From TrEMBL:
Matches recorded under InterPro entries: Rbsml_bL25/Gln-tRNA_synth_N, Ribosomal_bL25/Gln-tRNA_synth, Ribosomal_bL25_b-dom, Ribosomal_bL25_C, Ribosomal_bL25_long, Ribosomal_L25_dom, Ribosomal_uL5_bac-type
Keyword DNA damage: no
Start and end residues of each Large ribosomal subunit protein bL25 beta domain: 102-189
HAMAP family (alphabetical): Ribosomal_bL25_CTC
Family to which this protein belongs: Belongs to the bacterial ribosomal protein bL25 family. CTC subfamily.
Protein name: Large ribosomal subunit protein bL25
Positions of region (Disordered): 1-20
Domain Large ribosomal subunit protein bL25 L25 residue range list: 7-93
GO molecular function: 5S rRNA binding; structural constituent of ribosome
Purpose: This is one of the proteins that binds to the 5S RNA in the ribosome where it forms part of the central protuberance.
Oligomeric and partner information: Part of the 50S ribosomal subunit; part of the 5S rRNA/L5/L18/L25 subcomplex. Contacts the 5S rRNA. Binds to the 5S rRNA independently of L5 and L18.
Amino acid sequence: MTDFAIAAMPREENGRRPSRRLRRTGMVPAVLYGDNKPATGLSIEARLLRKLLADERAYTHVITLEFPKGKETALIRDIQMHPYKEEVLHMDFMRVHAGETVRLHVPIHFLHENTCVGLKAGGVLHRALNDVEVEAPVDRLPEAIEVDIAQLEKGESLHLSQIKVPAGVTLIPLQHEDDKEVVSIHNPRTGAEAEETPEAAE
């Protein structure tokens, strides 16, 4: 169920001051919750965390948190980043187990941009969505939702209802009848369109 693992240590002290002290030692404060168990404070070595997060798959795959006295399996639920440094300040993990169905935002990857009919004809690509919330068993969570735009022409668009997803995966917006636009090909704006005349503005 998991291809990722990282060492973690229990953390007893909470709050801003203990967290700052922890970061000065090269550790990142985090919390593990869910599965009807008490929330557990933990810390992870920043160096190991950077290596883990460098792989995009880690954001949608089950991760084994290896404690000195046991293991927990979890998904990344939230990451708080430093305002201007590439530095993780805090992380939230949610406990999961085999067979459980979960909801998670996964990225959308657009395929065959180089051969897209509409782009080759001079159209402009508009990515309306970069990610989408899905529901799936933890062992079927996709790394990304792939959208093939090879045959998309100028003036056309694709919506969520037109996207193929892996077996067992549900697109949450469609459950609420929210058929969002995913991608479209626009005609390039001409100078006349870009600069509205005074008469048109009135």
